[in-house]
Structures are given as structure tokens and as C-alpha cells.
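Hello, quick one for you while I still have it in my head. A protein chain has come my way and I'm curious about its shape. I'm sending you its amino acid sequence along with the C-alpha cells. I'd be grateful if you could look everything over and explain what you see. Here's the protein in full, and shout if anything looks odd to you:
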Amino acid sequence: MAGRKRARANGWAKSVLRFLVIIVTTYLGLLAVTFFIGRVIPIDPVLAVLGDRAPAHVVERTRELMGFNKPLYEQFYLYVRDALTGNFGTSVLTTNPVMVDIRRVFPATLELATLGTIIGSLIGVPLGVLAAVKRGSIADQIVRVVGLVGYSVPIFWLALLSLLFFYAKLRWVAYPGRIDIVYEYSFTPVTGLYLIDSLWQGQWDVFRDVFRHIILPAGLLGYFSLAYISRMTRSFMLNELSQEYIVAARAKGLSETRIIWGHALRNAAVPLVTVIALSYAGLLEGSVLTETVFAWPGLGLYITNSLQNADMNAVLGGTIVIGSVFIAINILSDLLYRTLDPRTRAR
């Protein structure tokens, strides 16, 4: 008995150690990629700070203060050290520490991506189930076409068309931005998530205004999330519906509703958690074009404006934050997968 417990503890220790090694290796790889991108691009970070007309001695002194005169390996060490402490330097565009800017703009991206994922999941999962149950039917073909369009149509083109139709023509949604200027200075957010903050404070007029601003960009992101989630749900459900336990359940006389929603979807939900998590991470990192078209003051728009102004501290800082969030969501989805599927715990 003692030997079995010791073996189990050793197995857990090895799994945790392997998990930590993967996390550290992945994060170091992310830092290495962003570091070398910052060194090979044809933009001098010193001249971006000082301008092209700065005296040569000022340029050299600033280069020395910023550490660019040190060997490359030492620069990388300092870069990793600063990144681990959240020090990404100062933004040339805003003159604020980059991390201060990121804390300010990231909640907007988080709120937009979260609502988009909720919309995509609530609609995409039932559509995928419907397509799998009605395989080969008109409903299946429609769901597959909807998913194909979601994959194929450029999001910026669809965003411009939706603005033209739903805002300019029908006036169903508010103009681009996050909140009306009437409420911008009277509303004091706490968490940075305007929908939650306005509800918590009981400001229903602000909530309605924020909802009218967010529903169109979130709906577009939700549509692209829906395309991926519905496709994967259909694939998982087709696999489950072909299993022997489904045949046995039908032979026992269970209702089709219980078989589909209580058995097949329940088992398909295990890999589906990973799909939804990856979709969420993709919206967090891939909403740059959406935020640009809708003037949404999130991390994507912040990185775009910084790149256009050669503000590489902000660009690299934002890239590292997005990469870190992506890694964290992948880790969380893996843990959820292991929790929901007992078979993976024995590996």
C-alpha cells in the first residue's frame, strides 16, 4: 500500500514538473520571439524616442541608458527580467508606462471577446448539434454554409457592411466607440468592464448605451466564433452518435432528446471545452481589425496605433500580454479537460 502511494505521488510530481517545464519553455519562447522581432525590424527605438534630428552624443547616451550598447545575450537577460516584472518600458505615444496603458485598455478587449464567445457558444453549440443530428439534410447544409462564410469573409469587410446597414440605415446600434460622450465623463467605471459596472451601479441608461455600442462588434466576433464552434461541435457529435453506447441507449428505449442532449453532447462537451477556450483566446488576440473598424479602445487598437507610430515598447508589451493570456487560457483548458475526462488523469 505504501509503495503504491509513493508511486502515485511520484507520478503526480513528474506530471507537475513536466507541466511547469512546458509553461516555462513556452513563455521563454514567446519572450525570445518578441525580443528578436524588436531587434530585426528597421526601426531604431532610440530615434523613435528622440526623433531624427537629435544630436549624435544624445543618441549615443540614450542608447547606453536603454542598454542597446550591451551584448545581445545581456540585452535578452534584461528584457526577460523586465518582462517578468511587468516592466515593458515607456510608451512613446502616450508617455505612460506601457503596463499602465495596457491595464487601461485591456478590459475593453476582455469585455468584447467575452461577449463574443458567449454569443458564439450559445448559438454555435446548438447549431452544431442540429447539423450532426440532421446530417445530410437541408439544415445541415445551411449550418455548414454559415460556418463556411464565417471562415471565408474578411471580418473588416463584414464589419463595414454591418455598420452601413445596422447603424447608417436602420439606426439599431450606436456609432463606433465604447460609450456616448454624454456618459463618458459622468460614468466612473470600477472594473473597466462597462456592462458589469453600469449594472452594479444601477445606471440603466449607461448600460443601454454601452450595450448599443458593444452588440454589433461583439456579434461579429460571436459569428466568427460560432463558425468554428458549430463546425467542431458537429464533428464531435457525429463521432459520439456513431458509438456503441448510443446504439445501446436506443435499444433500451430512451428518448432521442435524452440520447442527444444527455449522453452524446455530455461526452462531446469534454473536447468542446478546449475548442471554446481556444476560440476565446483567438478573439482576445485577433480582434485588432474589429477594434480598428469600430474605434473600440481596446488592446488591439492600442497595438495598431503604437505600430503606426513606431512605438515598439507598446507593441512588444501588448504582444507579450496577449501571448501570456493565450498561454494561460490553454493551460486552463488543459486542466479542465483533465478534470472532465477521467481517462486523461491516468496518463
Notes: Residues 2-40 form the longest helix (39 residues). The radius of gyration is 25 Å. The domain at 105-346 is CATH 1.10.3720.10 (MetI-like fold).
